[in-house]
Structures are given as C-alpha cells and as structure tokens.
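We modelled the chain as a single entity of 376 amino acids. Its sequence is:
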Amino acid sequence: MKLSSSLFFRCQLLAVVLSAVIPGASAQAQTPAATSAPPAQAGPRPEAARGRGSNNGRDPGMDAFYKLGPDSMPHEGVPKGRFEGPKTLSSEAYPGTQHTFWVYVPAQYDPARPAALMIFNDGQAFKNEPGDVQAHHVLDNLIYRREIPVMLGVFINPGRKPEQPEPTPQNWGDRDTNRPEEYNALNDKYPRVIVDELLPVLFRDFNISKDPEMHAIGGASSGGIAAFTVAWHRPEQFRKVFSFVGSFVNLGNRQGHTYPDLVLQADKKPLRIFLQDGRNDNRGGNRGGDVEPNSFDWFYQNVRLADALTKKGYDVNYTWGIGNHGQKQGGAIFPEIMRWLWRDAQKVSTERNDTVERSFRAAPTAPAAAPAARSK
C-alpha cells in the first residue's frame, strides 16, 4: 500500500515526538540494552547466528535449560546407599576382556527380602558426581519416599582388555575399549554378558528378585541401544528399558537403524520402554554410500523406533527435547523416567491407618541381640 505524502509526514512527526518523550525508544526496538556483565546462563542463540549448517554442529546453548532438580541431589535426613566395588567381571562372551562394575546398595536393602534390580550401561557416567545424572542420589530419594521399590543399582562399564584404560566421564571408551563392538551390535553377545555372566554373580551375593518385571536396564548413546538389545534378546530376564539419545543408527555397519523394522516384523515382546532424544542430536544423516539416507541421523531413528513400538502396541513412552547428543535432558528427567518405569512394581496399601505405608521408608532395623547367658 502506498502512503500519501501528508500521511507519511505525520508518521515522521509522530516518531520524532515519541523519541523526545521516551528517550531511547527507537534504539530500544532495534538492540537490547547493554548489561554490565554477561548473564549467568546463556540461552540458545538464534538460528542464523549458530553456524551449525543445515544438519550438523553442536550448540551448547541447546542444553542450557536442562538442569538437575532436587530429586537428583543429596539431602540431609535421606538415608544414603553405599557403593560396593569396583569389582571385576571376566567375560567368556568376549574372551580376553573384563568389565568393571559397582553395586549400589540402598540403605533400605534387607537381605531377607528380594530387591529389584536396575542396571546402568556406561556405569561410570551414571554414577559420576558432579555429573549429568547422579543416579545414586535419585535412587536414594525415590526409595526413601516409596516412589520406587527397594532396588540394587549396578553400574557396569564396557569391556576392555587389562592393558586398556578404564572408561571415564571424559573418555567413554569408543576408541580404546570394546564398547563399540559390545554396545552397537544387535547380536546376543552383550546380552550374554549381562544375563549369563553378571546376573549369576549378583544372585550369589545379594537377594534379588527373580521376577523379570523387577529387572530394568538403561543407558545413553550406544549404551541406550545396548540396553534395548539386552531386553530384546532376553525378555525372560529384563522387561524394563530406558534410553537417552540412543544410537539406533548404522554405526560400524552394525545395522542399529533396522530396529524399527525388526520391531514391526517380530512378535510383540513383554517390554516397557522409555526413549529420550533431542532435535539436535547428531543430525548428520547420510555419510555417503548408504542405502538408507537417514541411517546416521540419531533423532530421526529414535522417532522411527518410537513410532514402530507404538504401532506394535508396546508399553512405550518418549520425549523429544531440543538438546544435543548427551545426558543433559535425560539426566534432568531421570527421576520421572524411574517413576514411570516402576509405577506398578510395588503393592500399595490404601488403609488410612497403615502407618508403615504412610511413613518414609527407613533402613531395616537390626535384630535385637540375644541376651547373654547368665553364669552360674
């Protein structure tokens, strides 16, 4: 629309008056006010300023809003579990390798009562403190408040040869341990490590429920797909799975991106699955020469898997954030993931006079010592 010269003049005059009455108004509409110090928390930059290209790149701002909450922190008055380990598990599935693991034993563990079991792949990352998950604090808090059953937490690292370094939060072992072979392959070798090698040791040393509904496994990235593979091959032992930014992609030509097709082709298994991923998780796509152009797009493949599980009628839950490849969002929502996975795993009393049900879950009391025999 074309303005008349008189109307254009009146608009200019109004702008001059406003700038005189409200100093800086015209400039304020164009640029933010200067600050004496940078903000404490930088948010994501505008798309045009990020320079990530059309698919790749990593913007730390995309993870800026994912923070651990109170359920992931230690609290005064909450009984703290203990870690046993590190322990070493020699492997027959992968000869010449060994797995380091730690067992979290909650304060409420009673050797007379079978406990639930939660296994964490890349255990070092899930127990790291300060870290992105701090899973042991989540277990402390939720067990104490009766939001999940009493459970042992097993934090297991990928296998390595004795001369290879132990994975750390800075180096998860992709280049110098057996992690890629164990976690990214779809065969039954890593499930054998967990079910045939680790479980017998745990059953020997602790009173753990034999009910597969009381066994869960989870992980992040390649540890996420590995957790799914364990339950996929051995649902008679594991029925609950969670995955952060799972690597359901074609890493090492191991065909991880075919899981959605396998889910649709196979009979439904009795599994409950939670998937988490971010819209900026490794969006590289085709790396050249692949038949499937999206075989290296993490977010695309996680969404495909969730769709396949939903279509097949699985008990599946999922959430898609904005973040990168990492544990930031998964760690922030991990307490809710645990509540969802274990929501029906313990009997609930609705009796209003049940003082035990309405109390925090305390550590078991030691049996009273027998009175000493009197000397005659």
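As a brief sanity check on the tokenised model: Residues 1-54 have pLDDT under 50 and may be disordered. The two ends are 115 Å apart (CA to CA).
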